[in-house]
Queue: 4 jobs
Job 1
Amino acid sequence: MVSVVMVIERFWPLIGGSETQCSQLSEGLISGGARVLVVTKRWEEDFPKEEDLKQGFKVIRLGIPGRGRLIDYFAGVHLLAWLLRNHRLYNLIYVNGGLANTFGSTAILMGKLLSKWVVGKVATPGELFFSGPRALSPKRFVHPLIKLRLLIAKRADYYTAHTQEVEDELLGLGIEKPRIRKFTNSVDEKIFKPPISTKVKMDLRRKLDIPLNKTVVIYCGRLVKRKGLAFLLEAWKRIIQEKGDNVVLLILGSGRNQPDSVESELRGIVEKEGLKQVYFLGEKGKLTVAKFLRAADIFVYPSIHPEGTALSILEAMSSGLAVLGTRVGGIEALIENKKDGILVEKESPEALFLGLNYLLNNPDKRIKFGEKAREKILKSYSSSKITADFYHFFQSLVKRD
């Protein structure tokens, strides 16, 4: 039997692309017949140490609440002890990103010491670099402990890469090609789906308190610097000048427990500049996000750092929305410019303005892009197919024992 420990630094009730992918994969593995435990850090005091989720798996939260280097190390020690004490409960460890962080590298180390299968996911391009232009969080001085964690991170049995860029980075780090498996991120196409009629869309807007007679632009994701939202707000100034009160911008997400959070700065910009028709709606659960996407007209994702296969974009495309994205990382592989969305240059309010204005002025194009986007999701990014592929891969490893 496939018995998996999913190791991830952040998890429910914290919401983000990695957390959603982990939950989605866990559900899919369970439906295939696997046993799954999710082990994560206990970020806040009110997060229970253990919790059985309705999706069918248990979440174990380790460490003490808070942030900081010592708290990270304590969580790593707690994880080490938990994996050792519960080694009979699992035969495979899947590390969901953060492979060179304290939590992720501890999981890899213990998996190897305990002769368990270890598979690591590089969630974001650049996460295994700590200096240079490719680094996700560049440092002036790379501490020897970080170098040690990076060495451990390169000792997993296999790695999953969801974009060509991630695969190339792994090859550049000396990981042999046979140890790299391509598994794209996926989306639950049954939850994220287009509205079946205009009436359904308008009914959703009434329930969600969204204006009925305005064009709705939406962003869903973390409110962190690398998402480029300051450039979006700069572009929005011109959109308001052109369109007046006929458009609204909905921002779903937060910067909660993120070291590069810019939530307060973004709210400050809106208040200082007197930007109209901008609404911060906070974090929402998956089902609520799906409703907002079905009620919207345009999805915008102004990222300035190389992305993987951005889950927020997959969800928007699956919902039949026209997507405006920037030419970074895996976004370019997701969107075919002027076929199923629009691609513009990063860090450019002018480019974002022109892209948004094009979509606002061409509702027929928006509908066409959304239809093509939905077709692409059903063909290549369906969660039911991707999770089944994962299960067969994990099963093939366990059968070797």
Job 2
Amino acid sequence: MGQQPAGLRFRPLPELGLRPYGGDWMDSVAAIVVTYNRKELLGSCLHAILAQTRSCDRVFVIDNASTDGTPDFLFEHGFLDGPVELVTLPQNTGSAGGFHEGMRRAHEAGFEWLWLMDDDGRPAPTCLEHLLSSHATLDVIGPVVVRDDDPSRLTWKLRKAGRGGWFVPFRSIRDYRELLEEARDGVYLGFATLFNGVLINRRVPEAIGYVLADLFIWGDENEYMLRCKAASFRVGMRVDAFHIHPFVRPRHSSRWKFYYLYRNTMYMHWKYARITQPPWLRPLYPLYMTARLLTDLPSLSPPYLLALLRGARRALGGKLVGFDQAQVAVPLRSL
């Protein structure tokens, strides 16, 4: 494997025993990791993938035009010696563009299962093995995503599904104990935290396509999960499969990142309210989310607020406008 990344302590990798191409594709797995300027975290993620009790057949690393020396890092520390294939994009396409490209490559290569994750999390050693134990009953299989500082707590709270398949307003699952209480036969049905170790069968992109690249960041995973549910694919989380991810609060961030969070939230409401909310809540939800996000606004400047309004208005009509375009001084009524 060569040298280990500075500051990181990796155990030696086991012999992988990878199946050759042309073998049994019915259970073949390709991991897809999207990265941007986080080479040390990427190293930890890849080490965890390569140390699984059930090995991957291929690992696609989609590099969103990193400027921190990611390709050299991977080469120098031996990550490109085995099943890891590095794909360097010419520009940063965000997580949505990265996963779109990774899914396309893995699907076109013929892999049966696509295992998606960001670079800042890592799967527990038995994660993939336990996920695959539900291969016959689920199309989208998610692990439990837990905090690295407290594994008893979920990194992100989970929506609770109620009667009719709608999510229960203002109800969520926050810790692992609650999740176990809601699960049946080791599976919590109806929800998965995508891009954090989720396993997706190739039938899914064949039917509904890949991740929507135009979403860029924040919300792309939720949109794809809702698209899966709208197409009646079987979605669930295995409570014995774990993915470790630090807790982050994304809304306290830059103006352009917050723009995409707000815009994509409105887009998903336009497209999926019928399967996520009861009828009485649908007309009120945009106002509710706007009020909820107000305290996290990164700027109160009139031009920025107008850009947010432009993007949200177009998104509620099913059109996605980039941050740069939304800042252009065009009369609001023309949008």
Job 3
Amino acid sequence: MKKSLLSSLLFCSFFLLYAGTFGITGYLPSYRLESAARAVGSPVIDLSGYSADYSASRVTIQSNLEFGPASFPENYLHESVESWYGRNVDTLIYFSVKPQSDGSLDTATAEERDLNRLRNIRHLFGTELILAVSGNSVDFLPVSEDEEIRGKFLRELLDYTIENGFSGVDFDWEYPGDEKQLELFEQLIHEASVLFNPSDINISAAVSRFKPLSEVVLSGLDRINLMAYDNYGRHSTYESAVEASEYLQIKFNVAPEKINLGIPFYGRIFSGLDPQYWTRTKIYRQLAEEFDLSPSQDEAGGFYFNGIETVKKKTAYALEKGLGGIMIWELGQDSIGGNSLLKAIREEIK
């Protein structure tokens, strides 16, 4: 009896310790952030100088606006984009900036309005902010092949990351096309790690099961955002997600706690043989508006998606197997209210 009780207590202690590290990571593209804000009527204001309840200014952070707590809209915390993501997402990945062939950083889509919103979320809720740098081989090869350009690119990326309050960088090279390009990506990740580590900037990457990176690249990442979707047919089943996670762990010796299991917030047509397969998609919010979806439903109007029960089942799997958390592509595609997938994932974790 004593042994059984002790075992139960140890298990509970382990689970509670681990559950505290399990998190929700969500990609948030620049083109979604403002549209989401307009949908709920969030004003663009800088809240960084105030505490979460707006009762007092933060003495360690300067606010560039002069107004008191009474100036905030009533129930702002419960209605704003900042509140919704701040309360439900542990890590936000802002998507994205792009590399330029001369080693500079293209930040044209990263508007100050967006950065203010992100800073609001971080200051009010302690949400971690990650900056995504994205592109294909045309974008990444010039900043990977030449040592001088590579160094310039990584220095600019680090400076921009620190200046704007991000604590990490997510590399989204889709995809290195051959062994040579994989070697260049390996060198890029290695040099980024050496340069970023003294500033406590972590490094992650978006990784596909079917276009995996090398074991060396994967070992150099702090986190792996596993894109367990866009398979042929029903593009993101529970079974395919489990297989993708296990494949990375077994084939490439990836520790489970480094993996964020990706869940799509969009639907794709069923047939991978259809010539329109890669272009015919519909975001989950539209599906929820057009159809009376049940929690168990994963198909509607010819589209396969992840419904509420499926995202909960995937989250339960990730928790049970000791993965690092759940990754979402992407937050702006979610529905609201009872149909929200983000809400379902958060409820499963709690």
Job 4
Amino acid sequence: MRRLVSLLALKSLTLTCTAFDYLPLNAPGSLDGGGSPSYGTWATGTSTAQTVGYFKDGTGKTHGFTYDGANTYVQVDAPGSRDGSGSPSYGTWLGGTDGATIVGYYNDGTGKTHGFAYTQGAYSQLDAPGSFSGAGVPSYGTWATGIYQGNITGYYKDGTGKTHGFIYDGFTFTQMDAPGSFSGAGAPSYGTWVMGSSAQSSVGYYKDGTGKTHGFMLTGGSYSQIDAPGSFSGAGVPSYGTWITGISGNNVVGYYKDGTGKTHGFLFDGISYSILDASGSLDGGGSPAYGTWANGISGDTISGYYLDGTGKAHGFLTVIPEPSYVSIAYLASLLAILSSSRTRKRKDTLCAIAPKI
């Protein structure tokens, strides 16, 4: 009865239900590492022309890939990558694409990380000013994560190990430091990561003084903090939080960790959150390391990856479906049926309550 009364009180709200269909992406040569769960395919960005990401082959090497939507994969290896005496930690990672240009990063023979832009077969190396100044530490460098209308987003580590976001317009690197970052008593693991941009905004995440991760959107010089509902509920564990990874129009995507440590992807349209749990994820015997990560968005197409019950990584594409709006009276009846039958909701079906517009 209390549930029904509460629902009837929400007469200004509507329930938006969406069912996502997931297209798995498994690059040829991935999943070959003798059953190692650290192998697989990770989709990081998408456009109307292609999807990009990376995969690990049977030796543990990382290769970038492009996928054209017609089951054709093209392997991408930046010049100078995979030169570290056969170390499997070296390779090429693709971060984003606008259809004409691909951006990403690679590790050279010394372990340094360089960003790059790849257009029509030509590579341009990207090294943000101030990176590579940490007394030769190989974990320093520049990471390019996304591109929109020629503007490249990413982040770099300075000489102290701090992480700074940036936007590069082809001529100038503009540093971005979200308010509240860098306040953790000088810990070098703190900072700001910029993951994508649109015509009006840039998005990413930062760590505050407690080590918590918050998503953000920067629009017109003003930062807005984004914390997905259900995040930060893990008994104060600093590894919990919200990560914003992509933007297209009014929609942003990312992922968060819930109170059990599970990772859930999400879509946020500025009003409501839609949770993305790919079919087959969250099946690893209760391991909190399993879940779904939404990494990129272009129009109504979302890219990401999930870990299956064995720990293997599979990329995916999904299209934002048209929502169906359910009346409050029908919702009350539906919840009564679900309560009595104890029906379990499909992991790839999602309902989000939001103000009716």
